[in-house]
Structure formats: structure tokens, C-alpha cells
């Protein structure tokens, strides 16, 4: 067995909850959360007071200890308050993409067994539709609530001064959804200890400066935004300027106004920073580090962005199931094309996915990761858990990679089904299931088609039902519109006579990728 270890000192496992850990880093007098569009500020003291008071209110309504709170909101300061109030009160937060359709929200509410849904007025209609047939009886609205819904302000109760006691090793505090290596999106059970240790592991090399601000446009519902921005910045003594949705001009303006040292981005934003004419109108010379993750960053784009902004682009690697960070490029020590080195307490192997034997150093194979940040498992899915976390606690990532002689990780391919559209997860199995409900489609398969801007586009191969002609791309898009969020939409379609499958009925995606030269 060839195990790649970390060169960083181990961090200690503690019995702190994630909110206790985050509170430790907070300066009460600093504006730690700033709403980007309005400039509204929340100080550390206001944040802590708000979390405790909301935790009291959640507990009074029986939405605290042991309960699941579904949070479906864009990045606004209250997002962080709701997340930590639930954690402080002993609850679990399942994070929902606010661009989801009612159909998708309904599925997650049921799967996660949510007790209450917190959202904003803009999504009230979706929320109302989505709670039908679920255990959620009330919708809480951040801001002014439409009739029949509860305004968040009404929940502010007498403060709960102490953390509700929980077993930090076992209690699931966050339940984001990920499809992992195969199948439909699943609830990823992350414990307090998972999140706390990943904060501490990341802060060893990540070097967030005291009182340092960054602009948080990466959505908090995804683990990258939730942990790297929300929790690591706050625990590290920094703060966030929140953006409810990405807009390049506003992003550049906020980065300049708040003189943020570090940018946390995904590859499509790197492309914009490298190529978009708007960038020339802003002085970004104060930026010292740009870190991209969540999807492969092309070498040309990284180089062009670095040159234009006068800094180098580095990459990190992670996965929802890893809380999410396992590899980071230490500040000033990135390598072109590399996704970083093992962080503290983290081991990696490169394994032949067929024979399960370790590959020779430098050779490509499946990346396996072990460390205290590995999830507890998938919710209500012991089989998927057992297929993903194998003996001795190794997590199979489904990514193909190798290490160089200095211990830097290079992701070179993806073994798993997952499609990444602008860094967002699109699960082929989910699209295939929806496509199969179309009356003119007899069979379907979805893969990612390489694309310069989005990274990959969801591409569908469809077989027409007997006696019918296959639907066109436009027809399929119109059909899926009410069922799937915009980013999961099929962008390319090809009608075929049959879907290539193995003897056991598994779609042979490699054949389809070869067919389009991907
Ligand atoms: O589960 P997920 O959607 O999770 C993420 C998390 C990425 C993060 C977050 C915080 C970090 O500090 C950090 O370094 C990375 O995206 O998707 C996981 C899959 O995304 C692909 C890969 O296929 C993972 O299994 N991916 C993530 N990072 C990279 C990547 C990368 N640097 N290069 C290529 N693919």
C-alpha cells in the first residue's frame, strides 16, 4: 500500500460544536457579515446575540434539538445566523439550492425528513408548493412574510445562552446533498467534529488574516460556500461580504471597495477574470491570492488570469463528503495544474479502480482519502455508504489523479458519473429518471460534454419510444423546465437507436464520451 501523508502537523480533535468553534474566532466589534448590495452590516456581537436568540425561538417552537431545518436562501447575513442557530439548538440543517423547482425541494424535504422550511419571500410560492405531502407544516420567511407564513423576527426568543449538548462525533449538524460517485443526490451526514476539524485543518495552510474580508458569492447551500467561506472565515477571525447571486460587475466592485486579499472562486469565474473586458476597469492590485476549486481549472485560463491580475492562481480539491477540504495549495506555494497537498490529518492513496491495488508513484488511478473530515455516511443509504467508505475508513472519491514527487495532487479525469456545470453538481441519474418520464422517450443516458465556459454541459442521448420520433432539444427543455433547476437543464441532445449498456444493464458512459470525442 502506498500512502501519501501530510507534511503539516496534525490538528487535535476537540469536543467543540461548529458554532462554539466559529464563536471563538469572532471579534464582537467587527462587522463580520456585510450584505454586499446594500452595505448593511452585522457585527460579531449582533451575530452571536442573533444566533442565541433564534436558537431560543427555534427551541420554543420545537424546531431545535433533534429536528431538521431546511434552509433555502441566497447568500445573505441571516443565512449564517439561521445555520448556527439550528446548530446551537441541537438541530440539523439541510441546505437547499434556492433555484430548485418545487418538485426538487419537495424531494429533499421528504428525503431529509425536514420539520421546518426557512426561506425568503421571493421563494414563498415554491416553498408552499414544495411542502405538500411532507412533514413541514410551517414556512419561515427571512424578512417580511406573506400571509400564513412566519417571519423570522417572530422566532427571536429569549436567548439560549449555552450550546444544546450534542455528541459531536455522532450528531449530524449539516445535511447537504451530493450524488457522490453514482445515482441520485443523497443526504451527506456531516457531524460537528467533521466541520470543526476541517476548519482547523484548513486554517493551518489557508492563512486567513485577522479581520480579513472576502466576497462570498459561492452559494452557502454548497459545501464550498458553507465551510470555506462561512465557517472558516468566521472561525479564522475574518468576515464576509455576501452576494445573493453572482454578478461580475458587482463582484469586482465589492472586491475593490473592501480591498479583499483573497478570492475564492470556481473555474467559470476564473475565465471571466482572465478574459472579460470589465476587469480592466478595476484596480485589483491588492489581491494576493486566487483560489479555485470544485471543478478542473484549465492551465491556459489559470495562466491568463494570473498574468492579468498579477498573482498566481492556486487550486484546492474537495468534495461534499470530505467536509469538504482534503487538499490545499498553501499560500505562495501553488503549482500549475496541481490541486494542492494533503492537509493535516489527511492521507491519500491512488488505487487501480478495477484491481484495487495501489498504483506506482506518479501513475494515474482513483484517489482515495482518509481523515477525520470523512463524512459519517449517506442518510438512510447504508449501501451507498458502504460502496463509498471502504475498509479502514478510506473514502473513494471517484476522481482519477496522481501525485508528483513533492506530494502535489493532479486531478486528471473523473471516473464517476457526476457532471459539473459551472462547479454545480448535476447527477446524470437524476436527469435520466426525469427524461424517462417523457412519453416519447424509451431510454436515456446523460454525460458531461466539455465546454470552455461551463466546464461541462449536461448532454442527453435519447431513444425514441416505439412508433414515435425522438423529441427535439427544445421540447425536452420545455418538458424539464418545471421539474429541474435551470443549471441541470439538458443543453445538448442526440437521438440514438440504443443506449450502450453492460451485461448487467449499467450505462457504458465511456462509449458515449468516446462518441463525442470527450
Ligand atoms: O461534492 P462537490 O460538489 O464538492 C466540491 C467541493 C470543492 C471544494 C470546496 C472547498 C475547497 O477548499 C476545495 O478545495 C474544494 O466541489 O464536488 C466534488 C467533486 O468536484 C470535483 C471532483 O470531481 C470532486 O469529486 N472537483 C473538486 N475540486 C476539484 C475538482 C479540482 N480542484 N479539480 C478538479 N475537480
From TrEMBL:
This is AMP-binding protein. InterPro entries: AMP-bd_C, AMP-bd_C_sf, AMP-binding_CS, AMP-dep_synth/lig_dom, ANL_N_sf. Belongs to the ATP-dependent AMP-binding enzyme family. Gene3D superfamilies: 3.30.300.30, N-terminal domain of ligase-like. Keywords: ATP-binding, Ligase, Nucleotide-binding. GO terms for molecular function: ATP binding; CoA-ligase activity. Residues 430-506 form the AMP-binding enzyme C-terminal domain. Coiled coil: none annotated. Residues 28-379 form the AMP-dependent synthetase/ligase domain. The keyword Ribosomal protein does not apply. The keyword DNA-binding does not apply. Pfam families: AMP-binding (PF00501), AMP-binding_C (PF13193).
Amino acid at each position: 500500500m502506498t500512502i501519501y501523508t501530510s507534511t503539516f502537523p496534525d490538528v487535535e480533535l476537540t469536543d467543540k460544536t461548529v458554532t462554539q468553534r466559529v464563536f471563538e474566532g469572532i471579534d464582537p466589534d467587527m462587522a463580520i457579515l456585510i450584505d454586499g448590495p446594500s452595505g448593511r452590516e452585522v457585527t460579531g456581537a449582533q451575530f452571536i446575540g442573533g444566533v442565541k436568540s433564534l436558537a431560543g425561538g427555534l427551541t420554543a417552537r420545537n424546531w431545535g434539538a433533534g429536528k431538521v431545518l431546511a434552509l433555502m436562501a441566497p447568500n445573505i447575513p441571516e443565512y449564517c445566523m439561521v445555520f448556527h442557530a439550528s446548530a446551537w439548538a441541537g438541530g440539523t440543517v439541510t441546505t437547499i439550492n434556492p433555484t430548485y423547482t418545487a418538485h426538487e425541494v419537495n424531494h429533499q424535504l421528504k428525503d431529509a425528513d425536514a420539520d421546518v422550511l426557512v426561506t425568503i419571500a421571493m421563494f414563498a410560492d415554491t416553498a408552499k408548493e414544495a411542502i405538500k405531502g411532507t412533514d413541514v407544516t410551517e414556512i419561515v420567511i427571512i424578512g417580511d412574510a406573506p400571509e400564513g407564513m412566519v417571519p423570522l423576527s417572530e422566532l427571536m426568543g429569549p436567548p439560549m445562552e449555552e450550546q444544546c449538548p450534542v455528541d459531536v462525533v455522532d450528531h449530524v449538524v449539516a445535511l447537504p446533498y451530493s450524488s457522490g460517485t453514482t445515482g441520485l443526490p443523497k443526504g451527506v451526514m456531516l457531524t460537528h467534529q467533521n466541520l470543526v476539524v476541517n476548519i482547523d485543518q484548513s486554517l493551518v495552510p489557508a492563512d486567513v488574516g485577522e479581520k480579513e474580508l472576502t466576497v462570498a458569492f459561492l452559494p452557502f447551500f454548497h459545501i464550498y460556500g458553507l465551510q470555506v467561506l462561512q465557517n472558516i472565515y468566521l472561525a479564522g477571525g475574518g468576515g464576509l461580504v455576501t452576494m445573493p447571486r453572482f454578478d461580475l460587475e458587482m463582484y469586482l466592485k465589492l472586491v475593490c471597495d473592501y480591498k479583499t486579499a483573497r478570492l475564492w472562486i470556481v473555474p467559470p469565474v476564473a475565465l471571466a477574470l482572465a478574459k472579460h473586458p470589465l476587469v480592466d476597469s478595476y484596480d485589483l492590485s491588492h489581491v494576493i491570492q486566487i483560489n479555485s476549486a470544485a471543478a478542473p481549472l484549465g492551465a491556459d485560463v489559470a495562466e491568463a488570469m494570473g498574468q492579468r491580475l498579477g498573482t498566481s492562481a492556486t487550486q484546492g480539491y474537495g468534495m461534499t463528503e470530505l467536509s469538504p477540504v482534503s487538499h490545499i495549495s498553501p499560500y505562495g506555494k501553488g503549482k500549475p495544474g496541481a490541486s494542492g497537498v494533503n492537509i493535516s490529518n489527511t492521507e491519500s492513496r491512488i488505487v487501480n479502480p478495477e484491481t484495487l491495488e495501489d498504483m506506482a508513484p506518479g501513475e494515474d488511478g482513483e484517489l482515495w482519502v482518509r481523515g477525520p473530515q470523512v463524512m459519517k455516511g449517506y442518510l438512510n443509504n447504508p449501501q451507498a455508504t458502504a460502496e463509498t467508505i471502504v475498509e479502514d475508513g478510506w473514502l473513494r472519491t471517484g476522481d482519477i489523479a496522481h501525485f508528483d514527487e513533492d506530494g502535489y495532487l493532479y486531478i486528471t479525469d473523473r471516473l464517476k458519473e457526476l457532471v459539473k456545470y459551472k462547479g454545480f453538481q448535476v447527477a446524470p441519474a437524476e436527469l435520466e429518471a426525469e427524461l424517462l418520464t417523457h412519453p416519447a422517450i424509451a431510454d436515456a443516458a446523460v454525460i458531461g460534454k466539455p465546454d470552455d465556459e461551463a466546464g461541462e454541459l449536461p448532454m442527453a442521448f435519447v431513444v425514441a419510444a416505439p412508433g414515435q420520433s425522438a423529441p427535439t432539444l427544445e421540447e425536452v427543455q420545455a418538458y424539464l423546465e418545471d421539474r429541474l433547476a435551470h443549471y441541470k437543464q439538458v443543453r445538448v441532445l442526440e437521438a440514438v437507436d440504443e443506449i450502450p449498456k453492460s451485461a448487467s444493464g449499467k450505462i457504458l458512459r465511456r462509449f458515449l464520451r468516446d462518441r463525442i470525442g470527450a
